[in-house]
Please model this.
Amino acid sequence: MKRIAIEPVTRVEGHGKVTILLDAQNRVKQARLHIVEFRGFERFIQGRLFWEVPVIVQRLCGICPVSHHLAGAKAMDQIVGGENLTPTAEKVRRLMHYGQTLQSHALHFFHLCSPDLLFGFDADPAIRNVIGVAAKYPELAVQGVMLRKYGQEIIKVTAGKKIHGTGAIPGGVNKNVSIAERDALLKDLDQNVTWARSALKLAKDYTVEHLETLAPFGSFDSNHLSLVRADGAMDLYHGNLKAIDAAGKAIFDQVDYQNYLDYIAEEVRPWSYMKFPFIKSLGPENGWYRVGPLARLNTAKFIDTPEAEAARKEFVAVTDGKPNNITMAYHWARLIELLHSVEKIKELLHDPDLQGTDLVVKGERRNEGIGLIEAPRGTLFHHYKVNENDQITMANLIVSTTNNNEPMNRAVQRVAADHISGKPEVTEGLLNHVEVAIRAYDPCLSCATHALGKMPLVVELVDCEGKLVDRRAKG
Model:
């Protein structure tokens, strides 16, 4: 058998596999989510010219390319000494990012997770899919499509294309937003605000009504990590690192992310190509953490838009102000961010700085750059070194789904223990329960695609002697 090892192991987008180990009494001893593809972006980007990075790295992902585009651009800002962007450049980038967050959250909620919420985890897979949603809830399906379309139109205006655009460049942006482009986006804004409010109400009402069932589903206490603004507010584009424990106590706060290596380390395990990040001071056993909407709602002191802030207060009231460690609450948190994104888009579209003409700044050349951003799925790290010939010599990427690797595995373990132990047969209902737990994190893997109720996922049931008892595959 040949073994290929490339360090650091980079992230993947592809198929997932779950294995579940049972003891002699058919009790679950271990459950793992395996990422079995390998992509190697950190290696093959070496030798490319640094100004190519913002365009190349977004090929990592067909779902959230804007996040990689902006994180790569922020790192290259450091290389050209242009991290203090002009107001126009920063606001165009922010508009691009909130458009990305809007379309990504809408895609996940309406297309991927809503069939579980609307039809039930055990519903017939023939209807538990986006086609089933369109058939039974046509108005809701249209809202999902149109919200996503609006986010993509914003990306097109700011990045040049809906997918794999080129708007952000080292030290700034390559275009502003014209009056005509702004007015075209404003025309549909109010309708999208209304739809965002409606979607948030659906997610909140579902969570509150089913709280007794959802609270233990794939849940566990954890640390949480995100960027926050200097005043503690949620900021999806820029900020300092903050981590809290399961009780809400700060592990660190207002850490300049240029120093992330002093606080975050990564562990490689032989059974997965996805790394396991952890907080250094707590070690790999206790230092793992969650990122994404749930973590951001837990770490932020407030949200700086009125309707999302009111929604946040309702969210934290459910846990009496303590961190929310309910895995299924990710959906509610995600929809609060969706409304926040629309509010920020409205704020930015009315800002005259978008029509400014001062687009790029440069300063002292550096050989190392680090860019972080809060991608829809969580904190995204891009770190590069560049030689005197402007070529990349080192790249380290910690993507959102990688940060959530250990939590996703724990969610799978919890669901398996609660729903499989003592039951040697893997039913379709069990399979979807495992999928639901993974899907709550909105992982950026093609296995998370819930198209037509078929997720390319394999569940294997193995007894205490390693014998394969049962195997079910979907997709």
About this structure: The chain has a mean pLDDT of 88.
